[in-house]
Write a structure and sequence with these properties.
Length: about 350
């Protein structure tokens, strides 16, 4: 299999990407992840939050936690009106401009139910309405129900769903699109890094790979799993903003010039242990792994914000995959960035001798 096709044809990644598991309802994707983890890890377990924890070399003195969140943004039904239309709120953050007209898949009472996000047709909007971004109260989901009773035969208040896209789908030049690369690709990377570590051999630390839950509403699974594990070192993997598309001139000034296919992004700033940042960068250089750097002047919007201050704290790092069109139905990543992130994680973990080297 060519390098270009290794990711698009990876059965584990495809299963993760095609599974519906929005925030708070991650069980289906977690089951897939745990099944794969049992092939690689010495121990696999879950917890009350639904986090999935795979442990390699549990007797190692230094505990390293690497984590990618397995939840995705979605929607939740909050009301079913008398005519059978469903009103909803987001699980995580959507760009409201992309929602009208989208197909959705709802996890119904007995099976998946298809619907469409409805809004007043543009022909029926007055000129002022056309200038405004939609609000959730002006949107609804239409599943074709005759009335409320008919709708409640299929869904109920609290039912969740996602936009009707799967993936991964291959584009030109090693680019892939999919609904939930944020952050199924991170959950994929932390297990593939474990696989690569076993190939290379010689791990000294205890490695905890964790597919965390409920990141999209506040990194909640990261808090509980980190509290349980009490790692010395905790590195999150998530998607980061690529700035190589039109209209992002100001973003490049704030977030650096981040390009697809130019390597994973290493974060630095107050949320990141400075010695760990330098160490990750050093390992990338020594192993000729391309990388990019992004600076955060405050807490990052990732699981790393929980790792740093949980309990007595951990030496915290963040490695991200450049991503276009985040929180949209068609998020985009580059295959080379994914494989380079896997290699970087493996080399960093194998090179750590003692957690005390990261005491500031």
């Amino acid at each position: 299999m060519t390098k270009e096709n290794r990711l698009i044809k990876n059965a584990f990644l495809r299963a993760l990407m095609e599974t519906i598991s929005p925030t708070g309802q991650e069980t289906a994707a977690s089951e897939i992840w745990r099944r794969e983890a049992r092939i690689l890890a010495d121990e696999v377990k879950g917890d009350f939050m639904g986090n999935s924890i795979a442990i390699l070399n549990p007797k190692g003195k230094t505990k390293i936690m690497i984590a990618g969140h397995i939840d995705e943004i979605g929607i939740q039904i909050t009301n079913i009106d008398k005519d059978g239309f469903l009103h909803f709120q987001p699980l995580g953050g959507f760009d409201l401009q992309v929602l009208p007209g989208q197909r959705v898949i709802l996890l119904g009472l007995r099976k998946k139910t298809i619907g469409v996000v409805g809004r007043k047709a543009i022909h029926l909007q007055d000129p002022e309405e056309r200038k405004k971004v939609a609000k959730y109260e002006n949107l609804w989901i239409d599943i074709g129900a005759r009335d409320k009773k008919n709708a409640e035969e299929h869904v109920e208040v609290g039912s969740v769903g996602v936009l009707d896209y799967g993936g991964p789908i291959k584009l030109l030049n090693n680019l892939l699109i999919g609904r939930a690369f944020d952050d199924r690709i991170g959950a994929f990377i932390i297990l593939e890094a474990m696989r690569r570590i076993k190939e290379l051999g010689g791990i000294k630390a205890a490695l905890y790979s964790v597919a965390t839950t409920q990141e999209e509403i506040g990194a909640l699974g990261a808090m509980t799993s980190c509290s349980k594990i009490e790692p010395h070192i905790a590195i999150a993997v998530d998607v980061g903003f690529a700035t190589d598309t039109p209209t992002l001139e100001s973003a490049r000034k704030k977030m650096n010039d981040i390009k697809m296919g130019h390597g994973p992004i290493i974060a630095r700033g107050p949320n990141i242990n400075p010695k760990l940042f330098k160490f990750i960068k050093k390992i990338a250089i020594e192993n000729v792994i391309p990388y990019q750097v992004v600076a955060f002047s405050r807490q990052t919007g990732t699981d790393a914000r929980s790792f740093q201050i949980n309990g007595s704290g951990a030496a915290t790092g963040l490695i991200s995959i450049p991503n276009r069109y985040m929180h949209s139905p068609c998020e985009m990543v580059h295959q080379d960035d994914v494989w380079n992130a896997i290699e970087l994680f493996a080399r960093v973990i194998l090179a750590i001798d003692n957690h005390k080297q990261f005491v500031i």
